[in-house]
Amino acid sequence: MFNIRPLTEQDAYEYRKIRLEALKNAPEAFATSYEEEEHVPVEMVQLRLKAEGAITFGLFHFEEFVAVGTLLFEQKQKLSHRATFVAMYVNPEHQGKGMGRELLTYAIKCARSNEEIDQIYLTVVSTNNRAKKLYESLGFKCYGVDKRALKLANGMYLDEALMVLELKGIIDEEVSSNEV
Questions:
Q1: Radius of gyration in angstroms for the set of CA atoms belonging to the chain, rounded to a whole number
Q2: What confidence tens digit (pLDDT) does each residue in 51-63 have?
Q3: Which residues 6+ apart lie within 8 Å of 113 measured at CB?
Q4: Pick from 64, 63, 130, 127: which is nearest to 93 by CA?
Q5: What pLDDT, in 10s, does the model give residues 122-177?
Q6: Kind and range of the H or E element at 118?
Q7: How many CA atoms lie within 13 A of 32 on its CB side?
Q8: Are 139 and 165 in contact (CB under 8 A)?
Q9: Separation between Cα atoms, residue 72 and residue 83, nearest integer Å
């Protein structure tokens, strides 16, 4: 019924299409605007899809590309225990059918398979209760709010909830605080 897989540069045209759809349908959910992305050539998208340090996943319902999300891996040594999940989007016709959950679960499994990754971060617009509920159901916890994180073209500001999923046991805080 559906298939999830990492995208390759051969998927650039379809990825660009769903990315532009996401930016047009849910401008409040992304830091990038449609206007910034609409002129990006497919060749640039191909480079993004094969870039080191990121895996973009696509969810295909039969052959239709309906959901996407990207897992970014930190490159600096002191941050290499972290990954960040960004740019998640599920086509409106397929929302509410568990596809977002499947996509994020797949990304979490991918991060877990990397022994260096201890935690996954993500941000979500604070008023997006549906997405926050999904993330919380998968174990993400809110650790703060980034006030006025996004400013839309109409001048409206949006706060973002900062969330983290601990993949491994939390390091003994007592030891960590004694080292400071």
A1: 17
A2: 999 999 999 999 8
A3: none
A4: 64
A5: 999 999 999 999 999 999 999 999 999 999 989 999 999 999 999 986 543 433 44
A6: none
A7: 14
A8: yes
A9: 5
